[in-house]
TrEMBL record:
Keywords: Amino-acid transport, Membrane, Transmembrane, Transmembrane helix, Transport. The keyword Membrane applies. GO terms for cellular component: organelle membrane. Residues 35-439 form the Amino acid transporter transmembrane domain. This is Putative Na+ dependent neutral amino acid transporter. The chain crosses the membrane at residues 37-56, 63-83, 89-109, 116-138, 158-179, 191-211, 231-249, 269-292, 322-341, 361-379, 385-408, 420-439. InterPro entries: AA_transpt_TM. One of its GO terms (molecular function) is L-amino acid transmembrane transporter activity. It is found in: Membrane. Pfam families: Aa_trans (PF01490). Its main location: membrane. It is a multi-pass membrane protein.
Amino acid sequence: MGGGGVTEGSEPLLPTKREDDGAAAAAFHREFNGASFAGAVFNLSTTIVGAGIMALPATMKVLGLVPGLIMIVLAALLTDASIELLVRFSRVVGAPSYGAIMGDAFGWWGRRLLQVCVVVNNIGVMIVYMIIIGDVLSGTSSGGEHHYGVLEGWFGTYWWNGRFFVLLVTTLVVFTPLASLKRVDSLSYTSAISVALAVVFVIITAGISIVKLVTGQIPMPKLFPDVPDLASVWELFTAVPVLVTAYVCHYNVHPIHNELKDPSQIKPIVHTSLILCSTVYITTSFFGYLLFGESTLSDVLANFDSNLGIPYSSVLNDAVRVSYAVHLMLVFPMIFHALRLNLDGLLFPSSRPLSSDNRRFAVMTAVLLLVIFLSANFIPSIWDAFQFTGATAAVCIAFIFPAAITLRNPHSIAKKWDKILSIFMIVLAIVSNVVAVYSDAYSMFHKKSSPSIA
């Protein structure tokens, strides 16, 4: 790899040791004694639990509760296996980043391909986060019908609670300060709040479901899928991409690992995070589908836009939507951290670390925030493009690249089972990606060719 291997790519924003950082940087490093176990768990969990959680109840409607919940657990186990492969290969070569392992296995092009995938995936995800935040707080008129946002419902329609101004304030007041932090561990408190808000959503959904279940308002949910014909079998596969990409967090494993007080804790940190997120996913999927049944929408948040049939329905609706919007605001900087790091590696592969160049750090942060803000405001349909590129990038990051590194096996440490598992991951990733692209293309074509219903 050579000396340039550490300065390129997705290395930690703050390397643990650098002799050329200067006295100020050295003093800064001395002040930081390493990230805690809890802080690392919250940061990794926040990376995992984003907007995808709202699509999980709909997968239960497609698969049925029993297969759906089993698939959530299997996806977590597969993610754990892929991260374990990355960590194992990293230790052999002393790689400080995902990009460094790809560079070790596949050279320059491997590192660049990983960086491109992270940039494409993360910028698409953050644009969608900002669009959702705008929809929740300011409302949306997609589909020819206006759905009121929380602020509109509380105060009426004014210029200051319109989408542009709300997202501008959110960007300046929330995103910019959090995105300006140079260490992943600095986000541990906001990550803890983010995870707590996801739990709040689960508790509210579970509470409503239990109340309606006790009062006999909820029918028996579908335990297994209905497959009367071949088209129904194909529909089952449309749920696979949601589950396969539900735990993508691989690009933040190394930055978190490199800031730990005890780097050997990375495995239990990954296990704890996956258990925590699996618990949130399972309860969300179960109670979300139990509550709305066959009326569950592809984004279950949209179901909280109507009367829930219980007292204080509007208050609970607003609580769910606001807590989710704030949750996404706090997830945003964790995804942004990896985006900035990988884009810097693409554009300035031979430059000094981003953390020691304040001007480059500030300019890149400002430009990225501006691009995401403008995209979310003026071209919200940009997500149509990211449905294709994002699906491809996510499965590459989570499964194809770790499996390819294992099969390449440059240091002859992969076991037979590792290679079998890697082949399975690649096949699953390719199948899920083909299904995702086909279903997205079909839905877009169908949407354009069908007359709109007023």
